[in-house]
Write a structure and sequence with these properties.
Two copies of one chain form a homodimer. Chain A has 403 residues and is an alpha/beta fold. The first copy, chain A, has 15 helices and eleven strands. Chains A, B: It comes from Muribaculum intestinale.
Amino acid sequence: MDNFVYYAPTKFVFGRYTEKRIGELAKEFGGTRALVVYGGGSAVRSGAVGRAVRSLHAAGFDTFNLEGIQPNPADDRVREGIELVRMHDIDIIIAVGGGSVIDTAKAIALGALYDGDFWDFYCGKATPERALPVGVVLTIPAAGSEGSGNSVITLREVRNEDGEVVSGPVKLSLRTESVLRPKFAIMNPELTLTLPAWQTACGIVDMMAHIFERYFSNTPDCEVTDRVAEGLLKAIVCEGRRVMESPDDYQARANIMWAATLAHNGICGTGRREDWSSHFIEHEISAVYPDVAHGAGLAAVIPAWMEYVAAKNPGKVAQFAERVMDVVPAPGSVPVDIALEGIARLRSFFLNIGMPSDFAGLGVIDPDIPALVEALHMHKGESIGNYVPLTARDTKAIYMALM
Amino acid sequence: MDNFVYYAPTKFVFGRYTEKRIGELAKEFGGTRALVVYGGGSAVRSGAVGRAVRSLHAAGFDTFNLEGIQPNPADDRVREGIELVRMHDIDIIIAVGGGSVIDTAKAIALGALYDGDFWDFYCGKATPERALPVGVVLTIPAAGSEGSGNSVITLREVRNEDGEVVSGPVKLSLRTESVLRPKFAIMNPELTLTLPAWQTACGIVDMMAHIFERYFSNTPDCEVTDRVAEGLLKAIVCEGRRVMESPDDYQARANIMWAATLAHNGICGTGRREDWSSHFIEHEISAVYPDVAHGAGLAAVIPAWMEYVAAKNPGKVAQFAERVMDVVPAPGSVPVDIALEGIARLRSFFLNIGMPSDFAGLGVIDPDIPALVEALHMHKGESIGNYVPLTARDTKAIYMALM
């Protein structure tokens, strides 16, 4: 175990009817003017946005709206939100939605208190120190952004100092210890009962990925963190199967929702070096092909990444296979055999919940792999990850495995 | 899963050398005057108290001391601390020690801002709403008080309104959502390397008990919370064996230390009704026989409680047996058989780490069981617990099983 700081001061209010409490919770942070950020579609139809706004009004808030946030959220809506905050002197930002909405709200909360361009934080030119308070009404369990200090935003066009476009979209992740953690998150599983199967499955993969990226680590002696991560993974596989079979099962939805938060609030990473290679590899795909859902992209990438690294460093993958996928080693089997059997079971689980396993399944017919590899290493450096460090030669092989 | 609120805003600073950061961390809460609470003995000899005080001085604090806090901490030292806080206009309380020291610091932090007697909070006459900030330098992993909103204090003598003593000692637990959670906890496993085997083992039992009391629940559909709890228990058994064999193994100490925090910060109880019967049954023993260490008392009580309830409601005990103690059900075996085999393995684990299994092992030669039963139900009501509700007849049988 390495030294670490763990600080997760989000208040989670979990269960039925809880979204009615948003006004009361927001009130604790003072202020009278709230910006409500949402996507539209299901968050509006389910009544979640309406109930949140009514609760805020009842608590004495004036509310302003930023609607229509799309998956793989982009910088233009963040800039629009920052303008709204400044124009209306907003005190608190309320995100009603899933990861894209919450990540946009976080970027606005940060950018609104900063004189320069908010993208400075994402590309590492500035360090986040303060942000407006963010509250969440969660409607999609997947990203874990309701409990994390992270935010992922796509910059549509990279420009040089003269304002000329020099590259296509770049999707970057910002990670803070606590500045970007929501102050509170209201989590009513009922709001997720009508999520389509596809979106539910994408969420299941995304939350598992958040654990994998912390679990596959060379830092030794992390038995406590390992066992928590493995326990969560087992619970997600079990409740994931259940929710796909019975989409209107409140209890399965509740378990999946809470698992998604714990998967990404940092508890599965305590004391060790993490490895976010699969996320990085996927981010390039969904940045260039924005119709690719992040979770679906991960469903294809993760088993391919695992197979590639298991050939070089099978230990932790074999542990995953035994402890999570219930692989019982055959007599005389070596770790790589155990690892591969675990990966096969994982891939089969992803397929069973309707997730793709390659570019074709993602709807990407003729991917430009050299361009993906080049963009990946331009954004993330010559070598990515550390469980097995990957250069362009390695990441090309992983992308090729998805053909 | 039931509705729940989970709010755990303690900042954990974990690892080597971290106690030097206490001044800097305390400074974040403003103020210039700190009361340092500790037990003496090992916390002083190890240099932990000295380093904390030097760090506080370097950060500009004046420090005042309350030393010599004993196990099973009592009300008299709390009152002394409250007087010190008022006399010296203290801004923050720093606990350097384990559960007894931290619980005393919490009681002082609460009582110092309250006009009446601090015991009002423990006996339910008053509701905690505010407290001075408490910071912790942890030296004993066991109680989990560094991350919990709880505090357990013993009132030496219960008096009536005329000031006459009407009963002997009573040990009561106060639980808050967040008022009593420490603001920060510094956790350097090096400070625990010299803990005696007995104290280490008592801590292992105590942290497991904190999980059991949340795990044995009739609330259905808590797969996520169950799997986290089971993972932690497996890690504690593994690292507990390791630390008893190699007391100076930093990594084993680190795992045990972090497990103790997660065992009691509430994560293992999310979404379900808990059952603190074993703690209640033990508290009566260590209140009347103060030489009984809490963890040792629990090592005797827990398997006896488990056997008693397994006969009436074996389901969850059998699940524990299979998932934590690796019991493989024999063909045709019924849940109670599986449960009993799991309990046998747990008892054997406790014995192997040097823990007692009965009153004699606890050094209580001629226990007054009727008095224990009477006191228990006087303090906790006619029926305690809910996994299997226990009346005086049941708790008498459990105490008798320790003869």
